[in-house]
Every structure is written in C-alpha cells, then in structure tokens.
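Methods — Computational structure assignment.
A single polypeptide chain was analysed. Its primary sequence is given first, followed by the predicted tertiary structure written as structure tokens.
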Amino acid sequence: MDLEGSVGFGQHGSSREASTRSALLRARSIVTMAAATTLSASAISMLVGCETGTTAGDADVMEAPRDEDRDEDRDEDRGEDVEPANATSGMASAAASDPVKAVALKPIEVVVPGTSVTLVMRPIAPDVGDPFYVATTEATWDLYDAFIFNLDTDAGESTEASDAVTRPSKPYVLADRGYGHAGYGLLSASPAAVERFVEWLSIKTGRKIRVPTEAEMRHLLETSGIDDAEARIASGWFEENAEYSTHAVGSKPVDANGLHDIWGNLSEYAIAPDGTWVVMGGSFIDPVADVGLDYRIPFTTDWNADDPQIPKSPWWLASNDWVGVRLVCDP
C-alpha cells in the first residue's frame, strides 16, 4: 500500500484553505515516504522487531464502525499511587454512577500479556455520564505492533480467543511515515482496525478497553486546564512547534487530568452519539489558533483516497498521517 499522498481534511473552521494544506502535506509526504518505499519487507520487519506474515480480513469493507457494531509510563510528576497491574477496580455498579466515589479511585496499571506495554490509566468522573479510566498517553506503535504482527502469539502469551480476532494486514511501507516508532503514537489506523485493536486488548486484559465517546473526549479537553493557545503550545505539538512531525508520547507536561498530549500531536478518535467516528483535540499539522473545543472532524473515506489498491485497504489510511487514538476502559 502506498502511504504517500495528500491529507483530506474535515470541516473544523481552519483559517487556511484546505487546498493549501493539502499541497503542503503532499510535498512533505513525498519527501518523507520516498526513502520508505525503497525498503524491503525484511528491512521493515527489522525496524518493528518482527517478521511480517499474512493476515486474513483485507476484503472487509472500510467504514466507520457504529456503536451497535462494537461489542505508559507511571505518572511520577503527580506522585500518586497506582493499583497493581490488571487489578479489579473494586467499584460496584452502584458506585459507577457516583462521581464522588469514582474520584477516590487511584490510577491503575493494565498489563497487556505478551507485550512490553503496561497501560497507565487515570480515573475520570465527568459531570454527566459514568466514570471511566483513560490512558495517560496516546496508544503507541509498541502496543499496535504486538497486535498486527502477532507478537503475543510468538511470546506464547495468546489465547484461542485473542488469536481469533481478525488482525489488520501488515504494512509494506513505513506506516509511521518515518516520524518515529518506539514510543511514538500509532497513526493512520482506520476505524475498522481500531475496532479490532480494542477487541483484542479487551480479551488480553480482561477489561473493557474501548475508544472514548465524543462526550468523554470533550470532557477531557474541557477539564485539561489548557485554555488558550499559549498553554496549548506549552503542552502540545502543533504546526508552530512540531516541525512537521509527530513526537514521542509523554514528551510534554501533563495536564490537569494527568494526561499527555490531549491537545495536539495526533488528533484522537472519539465515537459520536450517532455511532460514527470523529477526531478531536488537534494535531501536529494544525495551527494552534485553529484548535479549540469546536475542533471536530468526522471520519471520511477520503482519508484513504490515495491507496492504489483495488479494493482499498480497510485497515490503513493512506492519505492521513495525523490521526491516532487514546484508549479508555470502564471500571
């Protein structure tokens, strides 16, 4: 799959013309991907630390899954205790509707068997809706590699249920676009791929891992304590300071919720009330002045317009290098 191409943009009130952005990003993409397309499959395997293989499921139709179809480091800066890995929260269903009790919960560490990743998650109690846990960083390639390359199986840490999850096809160019891999946020994964990813994680961890709802994501943005452009530049990566690249997760200070990069670096998926997918929070390609609470871009298949395959891949977004995902889970 050719990951080169212009980026399709949704409507989020940008002060720049979409055509200007597209031309700029196409030029950048050509430069960053030229070297990548010359790499052999074995060289790419070395970069991700595993051998590529074959995976079923490429014939699936790419679309944003709807609600009814969906079944990283300890935060030392905040000096709070963390529950043991995969520990049960201990909060009964009655307490789940009580934000006061939810606030008393401590952060948790969720070990993903067969990987090198432990998800550090913090409890959040919105004014409306149930409490939930949220990962302190965007999901990384370290974890996604284990999923798509079956590294948990190779490590002898898979189960019949986790092996049964359909896994996306392996990329045969650098899916990270050369921005960075270990410790960098996963990008260019389609909603269909992310759906399988969280299904696999839920089986692996015994927790209900999922994509945040739009209301949950908005709450995280509203309560971040990052309320203006100056504060966003200080705590996130945008056009002004990113130098046309994503950056390692957690390389900026945490916000009021103890989260990194809730603003900037990668725009993050969320599930709208109608079950469709949107992205929020802005990214490294956005001018900081264009990013606010009204930044909300619906998923579109135009983000895969430059995929030359017939049919186009349901798993990867050839024309989008600025969307990632943050994982949440229910108590």
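Note: The mean pLDDT is 78.
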